[in-house]
Amino acid sequence: MKKKIFLLGLISLFGIMNAQRVQKGEAQINAGIGFSNGWGMPIYAGFDYGIHNDITVGAEASFTTEKYTGDIKGTWFGIGVNGNYHFNTLFKIPNKWDIYAGVTLAYNSFSYKYNGSDYDYFGGESSGVGFAGQAGARYYFTDHFGVNVEFGGGTIASGGKAGITYKF
């Protein structure tokens, strides 16, 4: 019973806190796991900075490795820069929520090894630079901590990702 009361009190506390998304001049870091297209489960970390109350710019890196049958091991790394428009002002969304969409310019490196030797699985055409779009949302439990989910993006976690956010 005490655990239920404590949990209910904790949820109520989160509900009344004045959590707020990143504004102009503020920064946040994001980290978590990604969902890729058969490339393992990437981890990612990123940084966003508010240049306007509705616009952020940032950077992100992601990494994963996967062992396949037949002694083939793949390693993937992605790094990119992004810009996002946050729809809170436009649609009058409460600031505990952060709904956004934007674009990413990223470099992704794909490499494979077969029995310990380099193996060119894609014929030399897999690594490179490209643009992609993303859409996502965050929910802030407090002024500093939140959770995030995003779909799309330009790094190897572009199938989607979920994680935590810490706002400075």
Walk me through what this model shows.
The model is unreliable at 7-17 (pLDDT under 50). Helices cover 11% and strands 57% of the residues. It has an 8-stranded antiparallel beta barrel with strand order 1-2-3-4-5-7-8-9. The chain has a single domain, classed as Porin. The chain has 2 helices and 9 strands; from the N terminus they run H-E-E-E-E-H-E-E-E-E-E. It starts with a helix and ends with a strand. With 168 residues, it is mainly β. It is elongated, with a radius of gyration of 19 Å. The longest helix has 15 residues, at 2-16.
What is the compact description of this entry?
By secondary structure, this protein is mainly beta. The protein has helices at about 1-15, 90, and strands at about 25-35, 45-50, 55-70, 70-85, 95-115, 115-120, 130-140, 145-150, 160-165.
Features:
168 residues, Porin, mainly beta, eight-stranded antiparallel β-barrel, 57% strand, elongated, OMP/PagP_B-barrel, 9 strands, single chain
Shape: elongated
List the domain count as a whole number: 1
Strand order across the largest sheet: 1-2-3-4-5-7-8-9
Q: Helical proportion?
A: 10-25%
Main sheet?
A: 8 strands, antiparallel, barrel
Tell me the number of helical segments per DSSP (H or I, 4 or more residues long). 2
Structural class: mainly beta
Order of helices and strands: HEEEEHEEEEE
Averaged pLDDT = 84
Strand content: over 45%
C-alpha Rg (nearest Å): 19 Å
Can you tell me the CATH architecture? Answer: Beta Barrel
Number of separate strands: 9
Organism: Chryseobacterium defluvii
Protein name: Outer membrane protein with beta-barrel domain
Keywords: Signal
Pfam families: OMP_b-brl (PF13505)
